[in-house]
């Protein structure tokens, strides 16, 4: 009755009951965080300049750390696979197999 007096229109009872719930959820809910690692965007510098492989630097917990090879895991030219490597591009900061993948990543737009 109070709603009808204030708004001068009628609504269905189900809508009347769900509206406060919707407003509470909008006001107090927090967005869910996106899981997983962020996708590295394509680096335009990778196709220019001089790039050299370097070892993935040691950390406090790992003496010989490894990274996933970005070409092996995202290739469109051959079967995708997960492969660990101890090498990375010194400028691009991505893990790369020294044989094959390093050259493909720095010379082909679609590896």
Radius of gyration: 27 Å
Indicate the percent of residues in helices: 25-40%
Number of helices: 4
Secondary-structure element order, N to C: HHEEHEEH
Low-confidence stretches: none
State the oligomer. Answer: single chain
Summarize the structure.
By secondary structure, the protein is an alpha+beta fold. The chain has helices at residues 2-7, 13-28, 70-74, 101-107; strands at 53-55, 67-68, 84-85, 87-89. The longest helix has 16 residues, at 13-28.
What does this 3D model show about the protein?
With 111 residues, the protein is an alpha+beta fold. The protein has a domain at 48-107. The chain has 4 helices and 4 strands. The strands form 2 sheets. A two-stranded antiparallel sheet has the order 1-4. Strands 2-3 form a two-stranded antiparallel sheet. The mean pLDDT is 83.
């Amino acid at each position: 009755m109070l709603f009808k007096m204030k708004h001068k229109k009628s609504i269905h009872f189900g809508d009347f009951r769900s509206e406060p719930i919707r407003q509470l959820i909008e006001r107090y809910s927090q967005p869910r965080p996106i899981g997983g690692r962020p996708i590295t965007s394509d680096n335009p510098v990778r196709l220019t300049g001089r790039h050299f492989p370097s070892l993935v630097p040691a950390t406090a917990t790992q003496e010989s750390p490894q990274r996933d090879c970005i070409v092996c895991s995202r290739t469109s030219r051959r079967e995708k696979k997960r492969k660990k490597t101890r090498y990375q591009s010194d400028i691009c900061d991505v893990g790369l197999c020294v044989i094959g993948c390093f050259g493909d990543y720095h010379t082909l737009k679609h590896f």
